[in-house]
Amino acid sequence: MRYIVPVYLLQLFGRIRVVLYVGEFFQTLYPMRRWKRRLEKNYIKGADAYILVTQLLVDQVEQLRTKPFDYAVLYGPYVREQSLVQEKEYVEIIRLLYVGKISKDKGIERTLQLAQYLDDRFEIRILGYCESYDEEFLRTTIAESNATHRCKITFDGLKHGIEYKMYVQSCNLGLVLQDMDASYNANSFPSKILSFISNGLEVLAPAIPTIATSPLAHSLYLYEDEAPEAIAQTIRDIDFTQKRSNPVVLDNLKNTFIEELRSLIKSQQT
């Protein structure tokens, strides 16, 4: 938002064309006064072309503008990670992975509750940082759960670089359990989905529009009932001897984006 004025002045006096990357409308994330919401929409509306992270954002930009516009869709980093662990075979313990910001709206409590409905064939692993969530409460809840339930939970804090990649690749299923009614679902796409796929994991995610309408949907296991018991049933029904997620899809998306971006830039030069 702080770039609105300088970009506007550059457009006005520098006669430049602006290709605006839009990851989300900030007004869907944070409370804003009416004038500031209008300012953000006018800023987005005034761009010459766009890089947008979901098809739903394309639809929202169309509602702001009266004329057609050029755009490319980029869901996130289309990078295939090198395998750092031996190819996983089917084993008795299936490792489920929660990674990223630890908060209620991102699904940490839903993740912890899964242990009630899974047996010792499964293990829940948590990587991330507690920004607003109480870490001591998290550790206490995990200890109480492990004393009661057969599905064990492990919290390993933060990991970086190769250590992080090896940790992720040692797991089987990446969990994306964010609240289905969260305001940011209106236009943002969970980048952790791409991270999980790039590291060879299967992915479980909610069937919200930004995910269900994406070209990645067929590579994911989607659920519509976010109750922990229902999600646990979905997990139990997954055949981990079969691969649904395939990093090749990232190569295809990357090639498509490169072509879209090439066409977009060419259109702005004429």
Question: Can you describe what's shown?
Answer:
- By secondary structure, this protein is an alpha/beta fold.
- The protein is built from ten helices and nine strands.
- The protein has helices at 4-13, 34-45, 55-64, 108-113, 135-148, 161-169, 192-198, 209-212, 228-237, 248-269, and strands spanning 19-22, 49-52, 70-73, 94-101, 122-129, 152-155, 173-175, 202-206, 221-223.
- The strands form two sheets. Strands 6-5-4-7-8-9 form a six-stranded parallel sheet, with helices on both faces. The chain has a three-stranded parallel sheet with strand order 1-2-3.
- Strand 4, helix 4 (108-113) and strand 5 form a beta-alpha-beta unit.
- The longest helix is centred in the last third of the chain and has 22 residues, at 248-269.
- The two termini are 29 Å apart.
- The mean pLDDT is 90.
Task: Please give a handful of descriptors for the protein shown.
270 residues; alpha/beta; 6-stranded parallel sheet; 3-stranded parallel sheet; 10 helices; globular
Shape: globular
Structural class: alpha/beta
Describe the strand arrangement of the main beta sheet, using strand numbers. Answer: 6-5-4-7-8-9
Indicate the percent of residues in helices.
25-40%
**Biggest sheet layout:** 6 strands, parallel
Low-confidence stretches: none
